[in-house]
Specification:
alpha/beta; Rossmann fold; N-(1-d-carboxylethyl)-l-norvaline Dehydrogenase, domain 2; 2 domains; 9 strands; oxidoreductase; 3-hydroxyisobutyrate dehydrogenase
């Protein structure tokens, strides 16, 4: 099948690789064309605009960083909504506000295309292996049409409601884990007087009821960084994590839901981004907390 991937950042690129390995003819577009080079070198076709990508493919997968990016890509001069959409299928896997997803999806539907949202749980590794967790919103008919492709990208797919439902669920899924990385940093800070080796400390903290399954994959990396190793390749960027927490707070406010812990964690991520860690993995928030400069204690 001819599938387009609109947005080839870390996740978009990994999803494109997965689709290519599954035998699809993949086309790509990105605001920065340089980020498409590894994919085009591997055989993907480069398109000059989102509109041309949609028109040249049967299905287009959209994977963008934030609401501002989706606004530009959908409504820009050569955006998705300027293309001949009739008969096409658009699968938007971005993590954005639910109202943004509903607005974009509704306009695509009005132009005669099918539209499914499928924000996903998982990072670049699972994306390349087709082991993401898809949180789907859309009509039953559109979801049925998209399912064969979703099944090649996801290990589990949950259709949780109409448009906007998948985005709501994705914010809820990300929230506890991202708050945990900050909480872990605080836990590590109060353990500093113990002077335990980093790998032992992480091993102890990992074998407790409060530890998420993500520590199975990230715990060893965190221990190495605590031990002095440089920050490795980002699986899920700190800047994206900050955006997701801020989006959750904004959405909570719109439905009169208070999220005080989330708001506090978002401020910590914002501080880390301002300190130059935006492109690092989100777990850098854990290792940074005890190393950052703090005001001197009052006498």
């Amino acid at each position: 099948m001819k599938i387009g991937v609109c947005g080839t950042g870390r996740m978009g690129s990994s999803i494109a690789q997965r689709l290519m390995s599954a035998g699809h003819e993949v086309g790509v577009w990105n605001r920065n064309p340089a980020k498409t080079k590894p994919l085009t070198d591997a055989g993907a076709k480069l398109f000059a605009s989102p509109a041309e990508l949609v028109e040249g493919r049967d299905v287009t997968v959209v994977m963008l960083l934030n609401d501002a990016a989706t606004e530009a890509v959908y409504r820009g001069p050569n955006g998705v909504l300027k293309s001949k959409l009739a008969g096409k299928l658009v699968i938007d896997m971005s993590t954005v506000r639910p109202d943004t997803m509903k607005s974009n999806g509704s306009e695509v539907l009005q132009r005669g295309a099918a539209f499914v949202e499928c924000p996903v749980g998982g990072s670049t590794g699972p994306a390349k292996e087709g082991k993401l967790f898809g949180l789907v919103g859309g009509s039953k008919g559109d979801v049925t049409r998209a399912m064969p492709i979703l099944e090649q990208m996801c290990r589990r797919i949950e259709h949780v409601g109409e448009l906007g439902s998948g985005s709501t669920m994705k914010l809820a899924v990300n929230l506890p884990l991202l708050v945990y990385w900050q909480a872990l940093g605080e836990a590590l800070t109060i353990c500093k007087p113990l002077n335990l080796p980093a790998d032992r400390l992480i091993d102890i903290l990992s074998d407790t009821a409060g530890t998420p399954t993500a520590m199975k994959g990230r715990g060893a990396v965190i221990a190495k960084v605590l031990g002095g190793a440089p920050l490795g390749e980002a699986a899920f960027g700190l800047n994206a994590a900050k955006k997701d927490l801020a989006t959750a707070v904004q959405f909570g406010a719109s439905i009169h839901a208070e999220l005080p812990v989330t708001a506090s964690a978002a401020a910590c991520y914002e501080e880390a981004e301002a300190a130059g860690l935006g492109d690092a993995d989100a777990t850098a928030i854990s290792t940074r907390w005890g190393q950052r400069s703090t005001p001197a204690a009052k006498s």
